[in-house]
Amino acid sequence: MPVKVDAEWKERLQRDVPELPLAKQRRFLADYHVPYTITSVLIWDRELSDYFEAGAKLGAHPQVVGNWIVNDLLRELGQARISLAESKVRPAHVAALVKLVEAGTIANHSAKDVFVEMFRSGEMPELIVERNGLKVESNAGELEQWCRDAIAGNPKSLADFKAGKDSAINGFKGAVMKAAKGKANPKLVDETLRRLLA
Asked: Rounded to a whole number, what is the largest CA-CA distance in the chain?
């Protein structure tokens, strides 16, 4: 039998159909500049992609938010054998952690430990950082001395850097972070070393 499809019904269907995965991927690339490697994991799970978008809208760097979700959150969910809905870590937790790293309040390696604790307890990252004394130290005088000591103690890295090998600066950074027990602000370390080396 002939079927008559009315235009209004078709319009209503189009309005109600959720955003399709590949259209969402294009939008994530355009709006958030998140690379294919991350979006290709996010887009096939509507709950996960909504979770990412909620975190990205909280003012943290979207690509970094995506990295934490795709790598750390999914790993912890898998190990705990729970669903995203059962997780104590919400988009606000991830965004707050990203902001702490971006602000130089905590170092990247500390952030990994904070994430694990956050996943276990459901506490906000600021509270975990404060309780465990993970804040990066930024005493300018002390930092400068650590940088001077690192330069003096690494003649090979110094010669390589002066010869134009920019990556040689990492040899100094390792020594500074060791002296600071991992609590030096990596951005300030880089700036101080470059100033002293110049």
From this structure: 89
DSSP per residue over 23-49, as a string? HHHHHHHHHH---HHHHHHHTT-HHHH
Two structure tokens written together for 192: 């101080």
With a cut of 80, say whether residue 114 has pLDDT above it.
Answer: yes
- Count CB atoms within 10 A of the CB of residue 117: 18
Contact present, 106 and 114 (Cβ < 8 Å) = yes
The whole-model pTM stands at: 0.70
Residue carrying structure tokens 């997780």: 87
The burial of 197, by beta-carbon neighbours within 10 Å (0-12 exposed, 13-18 middle, 19 or more buried), is given as: middle
Average pLDDT rounded to a whole number, residues 181-192 = 78
> What is the C-alpha end-to-end distance of the chain, expressed in Å?
84
Residue 3 pLDDT greater than 90, yes or no? no
pLDDT at 53 over 70: yes
Q: Pull the structure tokens for residue 172.
A: 């100094």
Q: Are residues 198 and 190 in contact, defined by beta-carbon separation less than 8 angstroms?
A: no
Give me the pLDDT at residue 15, please.
87
Q: For residue 144, give every residue at least 6 positions away whose Cβ sits within 8 Å of its Cβ, in sequence order, or none.
A: 192, 196
104: DSSP letter: T
Of 70, 93, 74, the C-alpha closest to 83 is 74
d(CA 30, CA 96): 23
Average pLDDT of span 32-40: 95
